[in-house]
Amino acid sequence: MRYADFTPYDIVLLLQGLGVTLALFVGTTLIGLAIGLALAVAHHYRVPGCRPVIVLVTEALKNSPVLVQLFLVFFGIPAFLHIRMSPVEAATLTISLNTAAFAFVVFRSGIESIDRDQIEAAQVFGLSRSQILRLIIAPQAAAFSVGPLVGILVNQLQVTSLISVIGVFDLTKIGNILNLRTLQPFIVWAVIGLIYYLAAKTLAHAGGRIEAALRKSVKWGGI
Amino acid sequence: MIVAENVEKRFGDALVLKRVNLRVEPGEVVTILGASGSGKSTLIRCINGLEALSGGKITVDGHDVSTKAGLVAARRASATVFQLFNLYPHMTALGNITLAPIEVLKLPKAEAEARARALLDKVGLGAHAGAYPQQLSGGQRQRVGICRALAMQPRYLLLDEVTSALDPEMTGDVLRILAELADDGTTMVFVTHEIEFARHISSRIVFLEQGELIVDLPTAQFFAEDGGLAVPRIRQFLSKMKKD
Amino acid sequence: MRFWRVIEPHIGFLLQGFALTIVACLLAIVGAVLLGALTASMRSSGNRWVRGTANAYGDVFRNVPFLVQLFFFFYGLPELGIYIGAFETGVIAMSIAGGAFVSDVILSGILTVDTGVIDAAKVSGLSRIKIFTRIVLPIALRVSVRPMGSILINLVLTSSILSTITVNELTGAAKIVAATTFKPFEVYAVLLVLYASLTTLLSFAISAIHRRLNRFMMGG
Fold it and tell me: How much is the ipTM here?
C-alpha cells in the first residue's frame, strides 16, 4: 500500500495497538508492584546483604533512561548470554523492573511512615511478625502509597510507548505505521496522543477513587 | 493632604470601617489608636490602596486612590512601613532600599545606592548594607523597612504597627528613629499601641472603636481629663494598655 | 577489563555524543524555564481564557508520551513548511514538554511568596510586571531549585529518546558503536552506568545550588 488514505480498518489497527499497550502496561504493573513490594519488605526486615544491592539496583534503574535499559535487555542480554529474547519479553522484563524500582521507593516510605509505636503496641498484644505485616502495616502502607503510585503508573503508561522502538506493535508503533502509510503526521500523532491522553486521565481518575476509598477504610478500621 | 471622606470597608458581611472621616495636613503626626480589630490597619491599607474601598473616598494630595492613575500618584506621594517588615527576602538591605527608587523614580543606580547608604548610616546600619533580611535582627529589619520607605522621599509616611513584632529593646531603637523623623517635620500616619510614644510625638490622636472614628483631638486634649479621657471607652482602653 | 576494551576505540565518538546530550539538555532547560515561567504567570492570571489555555497546555503535554510528542513535531513540522534539523526539533520538543512540568513548579513557588512582601512592592509603586519579574519570580525560582533539578534530570533521561529521530546524542552514538562492535551488552551497560552517574552527580550539584541560593532565605 502506498500513500493511501485512512481506511475503516485503521480503527481496528489502533484498537489492536491500544490492546497491546494496555496489556503490557497491566502485566508490567502487576509484576512491577509485586517485585517492588517484595523488595520493600526485604529492605524493611534487613534481609542480610540485601539493602545495598536493592538500593544500588533501584537507583540505577531510576537514574538511567528506560530506552537504554530496553536496549541493554533486548540487544545486550541475548548477545551476552547467547539466548533468544522476543521484543515483548524484553519489554515486559524491562518495564516491570523499572516499575518495581519506583514502586520500591513508594512502598518503603509507606512502611517507614507508619508510626513505630503502632508496631510496638502490636507486639505487646502478642501479634507475630507476619500478622503485624499483614494486619497493620500492609493496609496502612497501601493507603499511604496509592497517591504516589498512581502518579508513577500514569508515567509508566507513557513510558510503554518506548517499547515500539524495539519493535513491539503497541499504540505508538501503529502510529509509526499509519504515519508512513498516510503521510498525515498531524492527524496520526494527534489521534495517538489523544488516545494516550484519555488512557492517562482514566487511570488517574480511577486511582483517585481507589485512594479515597482506601483512606476511608483505613479510617473506619480504627487502628 | 490626605483626606478620607465617609470611608467604608466591608469584608463579606462585616463592616470594618464605618463612615470614617480623617484629614492629615502636611507636617502633622497623626496617631490612630484603637483596640485590635477596630479597623486601624484597614484604614492604613485603604489609604495606600491595598484594600479597595466599599464606600466613600480617599484622596492623597488630591489624587483619588480608587482610580488607577490616582492610585499611582497617591503611592508616589506616600510610603508604608509594615508590622512584619515585608522585606524582599532575596535582596540585600541595599537592594531592598534601592529597588523602587531605581525602577519607579528612575534614579541612576549609583545615586540610589548613595542615598540608600546615607539612610542606612542614619539608622545605624551602615555596616549592614550587604546583609540579607534573614541575617538581621527584627529591629534591624524594621530599620531597613523604614529606610526603604524613606528612600522614596514620600510626603506621607504610613506606619502600620511597626513595633508590634519587636522586642522592647529593639522597639526603642525604632521609636528613636521615628521621633527624629517627626522632629524633621515628616508627615506621619501612625497606627500603634505605644501610647506614651504616641503622646510624645503626635500632633493629633484619633480613636477608632469598632470601625467608627469616635474621637479626633489634638494630643494634649486627647489626654486631658475633660477631653479624650472624658470618653469612658478611651479611659478604659488607656488604662488597659498601661497594664499591658 | 573487557568493557573498557570494547569502548576504548570509540571513546572520542561517544564523547561527541555526550557533548550533544549536554548541549541539548542545557538548551532545553533554558527553553523549558522560559516557557514554564510564561505558563505559570498565565496560570496565575485573572483572565479565565488565559488561565484555561495555560492549564490545557500543561495537562496535554504531561499526559502524552514524549515519544509521541517528538514524532508529532519531527514528522509534522515539515508539513507546515518548517524545515529544521532533527536536533533542533528535539530541543524544541524537550523544551515544550519540560515547560509543562516547570510551570507547575514555578506556580507552586509563586504561591509560597508572602503576600506581605507583594504588598510592600505594590505600595512602593512598582508596576505589576516589575513586581512579577523582580520580586515574585526570583523568589519562586529560588524555592524551586530542587524540583527544577528533578526536571533537569528527567530531561537528561528523556534526551536519550532523541536517538529515535536520528540525533546522535549519547544514546544514538552508543547505538552505532553497539552495531559496529557487535558488543551491545558491554556498550549499553557502560551507557547505563554513565547516565546513572551523570544524573546522580547532577542531583548532588542541585542540592549544593539549592543550599547556596537559599542560604539567606530559610533562616539557615
Answer: 0.91
